[in-house]
């Protein structure tokens, strides 16, 4: 069969990392779409991937690309964030090509029934999509019923039908490398502050999160008990292939929690070294899992930066979020990273349940004391399934709309007056952190001693300037 897999264009535009524009911060490799594509290709299908944000094309542009390929089935990869675009695209595709339309990705995984409310969407794939797609397309090709295909929901005589969850059986080691070759790779990177070298590509080595307990996170429910990962040698081989075959000089690993148990990370780093440390890399770590020995080994194998989900620097709140962290364990992890020369990007949340503005201030003070290199503060957006989400009593429509504006709060913890005060707290956190004299001094020093960093900051500023060019122009004209 000929299968087109589409990532629809962004309609919320530059509020979401500017991915709608070609000269944006970066385009992220659509790992879900190319992983499914690789499995379908292995099963004998011909596959096209149309990644609209990276190609910088609109809905009509997508139709033109699909027309060139003339598929027998169309798959759409959609988060909730881009659902509005997906629901406009589906009728356009149905009208022009008249083939079955299958939707997969985070929105279909959370809300399969909502996907099928769209009259032009025939099938929703929930959960991991590789094995499901192979089985599904086999059935479609043979014109057989979808009964019993795990991970699939569909419409039959106007009725919603849903099969059981799929528990993937395959070993990640045996999975084909995602079909990077179906993308125009020169269009992809990662944010300038996250990479030291380009070309930089996103890559995934694990499935699920081994910890899976943080109270606000969907990984805790979606892939619980299904944690899998590549063996260190195969992981290093695949990294090396990205370097040799696709020219990657840097990898941004997307896995939720990259250091699970010491053996794996030591062996992985060792395997990378045996292959001559083909790339520099960054990854997410949990502060409770790392120490100086691990960081020194990672550094020697090419890692230059880690992202740490710290969220709040308040011991009681960390317990409330089930983070298995304390102020002190975060500090120890940051010190250990710095001792190895690894940068720490601290990820923080503003407006989590039971928080208040004072607690955000003390988090910033503590983050500065711990010398976090870059701090990213986000507004708390309760994910479906979390207690705070239940409190909001939202359906899928409200959830989708909540992504429209990234700087708009959607949840008011008891310690805040209203949504506005939560948003103010976010602004204040950024101001306090980035205008702190100690921080400015430290960063300037790093800047002056590290030309790559200086270049990256300049690149980040230029791309950011480009992002907001229309706004800046308006501002200048108004003056
Ligand atoms: C890396 C990442 C990013 C990167 C790159 C995103 C990208 N475009 O690829 C960056 C940093 C840019 C990012 C930003 C954001 N992200 Co993000 N991100 C992730 C993360 C950690 C990994 C994504 C990934 O590559 N996974 C690996 C692939 C293989 O998994 P997958 O995409 O789910 O695909 C599988 C299935 O869904 C299915 N599938 C996927 N497509 C298709 C298509 C077909 C036809 C079929 C049959 C099946 C299928 O099969 C795949 C293989 O099993 C996920 C969390 C996670 N662990 O998945 C969050 C996640 C995708 N992000 C999320 C969010 C909310 C955001 C932001 C809105 C955050 C923010 N507030 O700014 C922005 C939005 C940016 C944007 N414009 O999309 C949510 C999406 C929730 C939702 N329901 O929409 C997630 C799920 C995190 C979460 N649990 O809340 N993100
Ligand atoms: S460690 Fe990260 S991915 Fe795992 S449950 Fe916590 S927030 Fe979710």
Summarize the structure in short.
The chain is of the alpha/beta class and 479 residues long. It has 20 helices and 15 strands. The termini are far apart.
Task: Report on this structure.
This protein has helices spanning 31-42, 52-55, 59-69, 83-97, 106-110, 112-116, 130-142, 219-222, 232-246, 262-274, 292-300, 315-320, 327-339, 357-369, 387-392, 396-401, 419-434, 437-449, 451-467, 469-478, and strands spanning 2-7, 46-51, 73-77, 101-104, 123-125, 152-156, 159-162, 200-203, 206-207, 228-229, 250-253, 280-285, 303-311, 343-350, 374-379. The protein has 479 residues and is of the alpha/beta class. The protein has three domains: 2-162, Rossmann fold; 189-435, Aldolase class I (TIM Barrel), CATH 3.20.20; 439-479. Helix 3 (59-69) crosses helix 4 and helix 10 runs parallel beside helix 11. The radius of gyration is 23 Å and the shape is globular. The N and C termini lie far apart (59 Å). The site of iron/sulfur cluster (SF4) has 12 residues, from helix 8.
